[in-house]
Amino acid sequence: MPRDNRMSRSLHALIHLDRHVKRATSEALAKMLCTNPVVVRRMMSGLRDKGYLVSEKGHGGGWELSTSLRDITLFDVYQAIGSPALFSIGPAAEPSPCLVEHAVDARLDQALNEAEALLLQRFSQITVADIADDYLQKMAHLGLNPETLPGCSE
């Protein structure tokens, strides 16, 4: 099963919008993220709907931050992309009369629910600015100019 990378891509785009470009079109972001502009528009629309971005159509338009990265948590981004399933494992999809399966599913559900609650709590403690700061520290540690984007195509 392929991973859902919308959160990672959203965070990537938000940091670029904050640190490198004031405004970017869906096409420019799609090129940077190696995806289709339609995918970018769908992904970014949730962030716009939550008030973290504004968008403008037409010539000179694009996506732009409307709030500080310090005011956006990973939990906020997670919710903006539709709160996708966090784990690809879980109980059986179809109900079964087997009591062994009932016991397995009950314990799996309990453990996964506890893990999800912990993860979402942690998401609410990390801001997108924290990640952007990590990026700047890595650039400084490598002696690279933060204005250059090694590995990123814009």
From TrEMBL:
Transmembrane segments: none annotated. InterPro entries: Tscrpt_reg_Rrf2 (IPR000944), WH-like_DNA-bd_sf (IPR036388), WH_DNA-bd_sf (IPR036390). One of its GO terms (cellular component) is cytosol. Keywords: 2Fe-2S, Iron, Iron-sulfur, Metal-binding, Repressor, Transcription, Transcription regulation. This is Transcriptional regulator. One of its GO terms (molecular function) is 2 iron, 2 sulfur cluster binding. It comes from the Bacteria.
